[in-house]
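Following the same procedure, the fold was encoded as tokens, giving this record:
***
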Amino acid sequence: MRIVVAIIFVVILASLGSALFYLMRDKGKSSKTVYALTVRIGLSVVLFLFLLFANWMGWIQATGSLR
């Protein structure tokens, strides 16, 4: 489970890095920056939903206290 979450997190960071790269290189003239940021947002939502699903299935357990 940790490996899957770590891989998705690294891909999210890579998408953010590519958005920065395209922003600096293209100076905002192409839509590559917007596409990379859209991919990042999509992956973040998928990761969040996956973590909710994994918690519901009992694959992971919350260890924190709300007190």
